[in-house]
Amino acid sequence: MIKKKLVALAMAAIMTLGLAACGDGDSGAKEEKGTEEAVQQETKKEEASEEQIVISVGYPDNPDTSHDKACTLWKEKLEEMSGGTMTMQLYPSSQLGNTNDIIDQILAGQPIITIADGAFYADRGAKDMGIVFGPYLFDNWEDCWKLVESDWWKEQCSLLADLGLTIVADNWVSGTRHTMTTFPVNKVEDFKNKKIRVPDNTIQTKGFEAVGATATPMALTDVYTALQQGTIDGVENPLHVLYANGFQEVAKYLVLDGHVLNFATWCTSTDWYSTLTDEQKKWLTDSGHEAGLYSQELAADSDEVSLKALKDAGVTVKELTEEEKEAFRNEAISFYEDPDLTKQWSPDLYQTVRKAMGK
């Protein structure tokens, strides 16, 4: 690109010099100098536009897990689409800090992308988005993808962008969230007064309180010891996360309650994102979408493998009947009626979201 423009400018310079030879000498010299400056300016513009953009991607998942593999594909696809002018540096295992730490860096305008969900966005001011992490909101994964394609979701993403966070991918799967405990859970009443570790956000805290548990926010890295010492009685997460952290060694019961279908999004700084060209934005979002489809495949495979591994490790697995799961769902409906939440939400939000999914 640069070479072609330099050649064109050089030809223009030659023609200018030729004309100058027939006229005033000083005028020709000025024309030559002006042409040289134009060449230099054009070169600088081209070099600036083709300078490689490096994006840091931080996430809590360990290397070789589903999200890490999908991020590697995202990096490859972005480099391929951009011709190498955009690339990513991956930072798994919370190397850039926990999710809230990274979001703080993003809001400061850093070229960073991190994985987050409605629960975190609710705590950052997009209150209505928190509902997508509510217990038993979705009946199946198809409901999730219908919601992501809805006008309601697009409106929420626009509001979030105004708050400084732009979502660049929203079709990733973290997995179906289940609960592993140090005590058997056969019915929803078994959660009463039990301490269950949750991520540090209001939505998930309220979600477990709705089924009678004592929600205990805690860093995932502290959970193993807390289970071992009896500080907490259980932990919830997708199966592959539970297994990867070795919780089967200190918690021998698993209830497949499927309380949240955890679709994941990736966000970045609105200010930084606005500095990209339309083409660069498209490369980033298109490659992120492709990687998201891959993450859906990986999550399904990973859950199957992880469940078998947990059983092989001696974990007693409780699969809920439809009737038992309905009892969990009925108990959790109080979440959507919690005045601490509804006073922050738009009127009739639960009904609005269900309608957006075609319910």
From TrEMBL:
Presence of the UniProt keyword Phosphoprotein in the record: no
Protein name in UniProt: TRAP-type C4-dicarboxylate transport system, substrate-binding protein
Family assignment from sequence similarity: Belongs to the bacterial solute-binding protein 7 family.
Signal peptide feature range: 1-20
Tree of life domain: Bacteria
Pfam families, A to Z: DctP (PF03480)
GO biological process, one term: transmembrane transport
Phylogenetic lineage: Bacteria, Bacillati, Bacillota, Clostridia, Eubacteriales
Gene3D superfamilies: Bacterial extracellular solute-binding protein, family 7
Entry keyword set: Signal, Transport
